[in-house]
């Protein structure tokens, strides 16, 4: 065979093997692979490609080494015809699925391995109490905001009225903590920035957080209003403003499922909060845009703070201890 003939033969054999490769790979994954959980879609594309190409390469190698008659015997309905089109791709598929399963298990074990960051007391706490206190407060801010996010996750699979309301409340709670983070870190922003850069923060990230901390962005202004008027103070003025805007015949005060006590969403109270997120605006797209801005700002601040904590821990010689 010439090089061109070999190439076209391999390509033709690959095309012929693809339908059975898809079916047999799917069967092998169902029997072997899925017990270890899902993998990224492109791994399946690799598995399908390897199955089809491996079958084609074996068929071509058989023809080159043993002759066309042997290849015809193994890949057609004559003789042992099921070996080539069925048994071989099934074996290759099974090998791919077993490999993916093993790799997924190893990645999961690595990602879920417990660890601790430890540092000497003198070096990390008492040598520079100003930096130590700052970093501890950064950790509190990160924990508070992530705690609000985890509340969102905890009720995300529920459709009860109370949990629907808690999703909104977890959002405004995270926004309020974002303001607290700004108030805490703004006076010490230069030091936080230096620590964050030591922890790998980019200039763009530092600039974005600096803009948020300036209080001039829409998110910064919203965070201050949410914190002072809605979350921590339950401001009477905001509630009275909402009362004055109601012009319908009825008020949706509360709702729930099952027991009237302990499982009730006080809908009117929550509506008064939602109305003050974007006063005077009743547009779902505008609300989605606001949610996106808040999420972007929160993500930036969290990364910035965690980079600063990592930079500080690195500077004081902290070590990672895996359990």
Your description of this structure?
The protein is built from 13 helices and 4 strands. It folds into 2 domains: 109 residues, no CATH class; 208 residues, no CATH class. The protein is elongated and about 90 Å long. Strand 2 and strand 3 form a beta hairpin. Helices cover 73% and strands 4% of the residues. The chain is mainly alpha-helical and 323 residues long. The two termini are 58 Å apart.
- Which stretches of 5+ consecutive residues score pLDDT under 50? none
Biggest sheet overview: 2 strands, antiparallel
Mean pLDDT: 82
Structural class: mainly alpha
Strand order across the largest sheet: 1-4
- Cα-atom radius of gyration: 30 Å
How large a portion of the residues is in β-strands, by DSSP E?
A: under 5%
Q: Work out the helix count.
A: 13
State the end-to-end distance.
Answer: 58 Å
Listing every helix as H and every strand as E from the N terminus to the C terminus, the arrangement reads HHHHEHHHHHHHEEHHE
The number of distinct β-strands equals: 4
* Tally of separate domains: 2
Envelope shape: elongated
Helix proportion = over 70%
């Amino acid at each position: 065979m010439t090089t061109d003939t070999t190439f076209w033969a391999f390509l033709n054999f690959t095309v012929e093997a693809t339908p059975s490769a898809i079916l047999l790979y799917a069967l092998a994954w169902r029997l072997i692979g899925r017990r270890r959980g899902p993998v990224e879609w492109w791994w399946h594309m690799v598995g399908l490609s390897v199955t089809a190409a491996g079958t084609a390469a074996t068929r071509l190698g058989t023809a080159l080494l043993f002759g066309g008659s042997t290849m015809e015997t193994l890949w057609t309905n004559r003789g042992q015809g099921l070996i080539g089109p069925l048994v071989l791709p099934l074996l290759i598929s099974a090998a791919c699925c077993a490999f993916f399963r093993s790799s997924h298990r190893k990645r999961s074990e690595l990602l879920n391995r417990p660890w601790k960051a430890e540092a000497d007391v003198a070096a990390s706490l008492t040598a520079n109490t100003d930096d130590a206190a700052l970093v501890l407060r950064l950790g509190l801010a990160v924990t508070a905001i992530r705690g609000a996010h985890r509340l969102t996750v905890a009720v995300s699979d529920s459709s009860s009225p109370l949990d629907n309301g808690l999703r909104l409340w977890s959002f405004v709670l995270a926004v309020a903590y974002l303001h607290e983070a700004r108030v805490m870190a703004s006076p010490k922003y230069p030091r936080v920035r230096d620590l964050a850069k030591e922890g790998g923060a980019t200039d763009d990230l530092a600039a974005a957080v600096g803009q948020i901390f300036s209080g001039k962005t829409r998110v910064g202004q919203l965070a201050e209003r949410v914190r002072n008027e809605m979350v921590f103070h339950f401001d009477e003025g905001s509630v009275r403003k909402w009362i004055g805007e109601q012009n319908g015949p009825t008020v949706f005060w509360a709702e729930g499922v099952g027991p009237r006590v302990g499982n009730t969403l006080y809908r009117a109270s929550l509506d008064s909060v939602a109305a003050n997120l974007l006063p005077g605006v009743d547009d779902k797209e505008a609300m989605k845009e606001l949610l996106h801005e808040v999420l972007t700002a929160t993500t930036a601040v969290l990364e910035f703070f965690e980079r600063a904590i990592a930079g500080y821990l690195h500077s004081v010689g902290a070590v990672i201890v895996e359990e």
